[in-house]
Amino acid sequence: MRFRREAASPAAGDAAGGTDAARGIELRGVGHVYGERPVLADLDLHLTENRIGVVGANGSGKSTFARLLNGLVLPTTGQVLVDGLDTRRQVREVRRRVGFVFQDPDAQIVHPTVAEDVAFGLENQGVPPAERAERVAEVLDRYGLAGHADHPAHLLSGGQKQLLAIAGVLVMRPARIVFDEPTTLLDLVNARRVARVIGELPQHVVVVTHDLDLLEGFDRVLVIDEGRLVEDGAPEVAVRAYRKLMADR
Ligand SMILES: Nc1ncnc2c1ncn2[C@@H]1O[C@H](COP(=O)(O)OP(=O)(O)OP(=O)(O)O)[C@@H](O)[C@H]1O
């Protein structure tokens, strides 16, 4: 899937449109059903914090939740609003605003070389070549990939691929970024590196993860269980609740 290619302006920090009250991501009475299988129900949330984590058991509905936030999945019931934009009716604008980083970077890498891969979304958007080159160089430099610009993207290490996937989203300057298990496939060194990168982003981020260390310094953590929100609070409180939930199984 190549949805990240649609992430674009406005840059982080830009006036995102709508009224202040409409800022953030709002879920109103959201539920989701795949075929006959209900996977999320009764979600009423207003997500405004800079760093939000989402944890829960396998199959609890976290990826589905993440995908609702940029319109990759549409709610079966209720509404998801991003800065006042409805994911059902204004999906293109929503995807410009909300970048999405998949768990497996191979799902996002579509061009032969590192630089071409990062440039693709900008090219699609009609960004002029000189600006394109400048933005690509800047983002590759920031993530330690400048020396790999002309290398085959698929030959990068797992950690470098994840950074490339993040670079490909960031170059589009979305105001918000959703990460679906960004460190699951990485070793400890690369997991820490990606955690640091996420921690330093100016964007609002929502991170689905099983890596509880990643949640350090987050503003808010949601615990999802069997498709329902069962805890919502500061990381220490939410993680404690999650551990207890799992210990009782
Ligand atoms: N496209 C789909 N079609 C049908 N069922 C699906 C689809 N995607 C997910 N599901 C089901 O929905 C439920 C929730 O899946 P989801 O991937 O959202 O969970 P998760 O919490 O992210 O799991 P994990 O931690 O294992 O990645 C699971 O039972 C899964 O089998």
CATH class: Alpha Beta
CATH superfamily: P-loop containing nucleotide triphosphate hydrolases
Name the structural class: alpha/beta
Mean pLDDT: 90
Give the names of the bound compounds: adenosine-5'-triphosphate
Number of helices, where a helix is a run of at least 4 consecutive DSSP H or I residues: 7
Stretches where pLDDT is under 50 for at least 5 consecutive residues are 1-18
N-to-C terminal Cα separation, in Å?
35 Å
Strand segment count: 10
Plain-language structure description:
With 249 residues, the protein is of the alpha/beta class. It has a single domain, classed as 3-Layer(aba) Sandwich (Rossmann fold), CATH 3.40.50. 31% of the residues lie in helices and 24% in strands. The protein contains seven helices and ten strands. The chain has helices at residues 62-68, 91-97, 114-124, 129-142, 158-170, 188-200, 235-247, and strands spanning 25-34, 37-47, 51-55, 77-82, 85-86, 98-101, 176-180, 204-208, 220-225, 228-233. The strands form two sheets. A six-stranded mixed sheet has the order 6-7-8-3-9-10, with helices on both faces. Strands 2-1-4-5 form a four-stranded antiparallel sheet, covered by helices on one side. The radius of gyration is 18 Å and the shape is globular. The protein starts with 24 loop residues before the first strand and ends with a helix. Mean pLDDT is 90; it is low at 1-18. Adenosine-5'-triphosphate is lined by residues 34, 37, 39, 56, 58-64.
Explain briefly what this protein structure is:
31% of the residues lie in helices and 24% in strands.
